[in-house]
């Protein structure tokens, strides 16, 4: 664990709680603004987010001016009946992981912005626990987990927020069938969480585009039963996201788009867990090293990633071993097999 992170985690807890209350108050004010304009349910209208001016700096997760607020990770459903998503456009980092039957699920990380609703929310997986260790002690909101996994979640350094333990933070929608209709009220979730870490350095670097790379208009990432396509838009200067051949949109913020896309090749192996149907749950290794493809500014860069321990940063470097800078903005990280 690096010294800066250790010092950050050893900050006085009362100061951390005060900062948390200030951030939640700002976010709650943004959500209240939405509700005053008549936006209810899982589709609160045009996305409203806010950051406090009290402690603004540069986000460790996006490279943009932002509050270094508490870290909230939300497990989000991603099968076709779960779309369009709500609140996903406000995430700082969007991780995509393989789950049972070759499908995918999203783990979205929020800190600098918080929408009124996020979802649909689904169950946690074992891989989430290792992935989230680099964030210190984040809050993790999810709909539930199989009984054999619960002791591991309890022992992990996360502020676990399943629906059963924070019922006021969740709401069901009547516009789609269960289980694809559970949404999180993030300000209530963070209010229920204890000792949540603020955003800290997890190894990402942001800045001007590096030299080299190759022009790229479109790139598709395939899982056994899911695919993601990222198309470069010169007008918007973003990668437009498509899922399973359809444009990915949200109920509250329009088209999903990324500033940087990271295709991180890693080991995806069977775990000891199975779903209710008997399918084996994959385990995605996020400690180790391997190759990656980084997309930014309409170009593709070959890269390497390394994370020496679960508590350590994930570092992305170019062919010369130098840190590879991401484009400021939302980052998508797709964890795929080698």
UniProtKB/TrEMBL annotation:
The DUF3048 domain, residue ranges: 62-194, 220-333
One Pfam family in the UniProt entry: DUF3048_C
InterPro entries: DUF3048_C, DUF3048_N, YerB-like_sf
Membrane-spanning residues: none
Gene3D superfamilies (UniProt xref): YerB-like
SUPFAM superfamilies in the record: YerB-like
Name of the protein this chain belongs to: DUF3048 domain-containing protein
Source organism: Streptomyces kurssanovii
């Amino acid at each position: 664990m690096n010294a800066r992170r250790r010092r950050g985690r050893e900050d006085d807890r009362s100061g951390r709680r005060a900062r948390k209350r200030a951030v939640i108050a700002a976010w709650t004010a943004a959500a209240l603004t939405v509700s005053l304009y008549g936006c209810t349910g899982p589709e609160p209208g045009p996305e409203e987010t806010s950051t406090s001016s009290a402690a603004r700096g540069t986000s460790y997760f996006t490279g943009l001016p932002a509050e270094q607020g508490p870290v909230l990770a939300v497990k989000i459903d991603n099968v076709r009946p779960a779309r369009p998503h709500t609140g996903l456009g406000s995430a700082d980092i969007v991780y995509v992981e393989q789950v049972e039957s070759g499908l995918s699920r999203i783990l979205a990380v929020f800190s600098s912005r918080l929408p009124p609703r996020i979802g649909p929310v689904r169950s946690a997986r074992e891989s989430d626990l290792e992935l989230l260790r680099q964030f210190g002690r984040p809050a993790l909101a999810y709909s539930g987990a199989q009984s054999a996994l619960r002791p591991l979640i309890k022992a992990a350094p996360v502020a676990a927020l399943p629906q059963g333990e924070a019922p006021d933070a969740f709401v069901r929608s009547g516009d789609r069938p269960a289980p694809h209709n559970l949404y999180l009220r993030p300000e209530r979730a963070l209010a229920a969480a204890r000792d949540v870490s603020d955003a800290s350095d997890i190894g990402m670097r942001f800045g001007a585009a590096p030299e080299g790379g190759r022009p790229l208009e479109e790139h598709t990432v395939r899982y056994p039963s899911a695919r993601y396509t990222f198309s470069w838009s010169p007008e918007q200067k973003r990668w437009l996201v498509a899922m399973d051949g359809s444009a990915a949109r949200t109920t509250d913020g329009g088209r999903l788009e990324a500033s940087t896309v990271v295709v991180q090749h890693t080991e995806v192996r069977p775990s000891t867990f199975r779903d209710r149907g008997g399918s084996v749950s994959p385990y995605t290794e996020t400690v180790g090293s391997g190759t990656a493809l980084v997309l930014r500014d309409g170009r593709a860069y070959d890269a390497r990633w390394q994370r020496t321990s679960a508590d350590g940063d994930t570092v992305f470097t170019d062919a010369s071993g130098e840190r590879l800078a991401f484009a400021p903005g939302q980052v998508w990280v797709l964890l795929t097999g080698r």
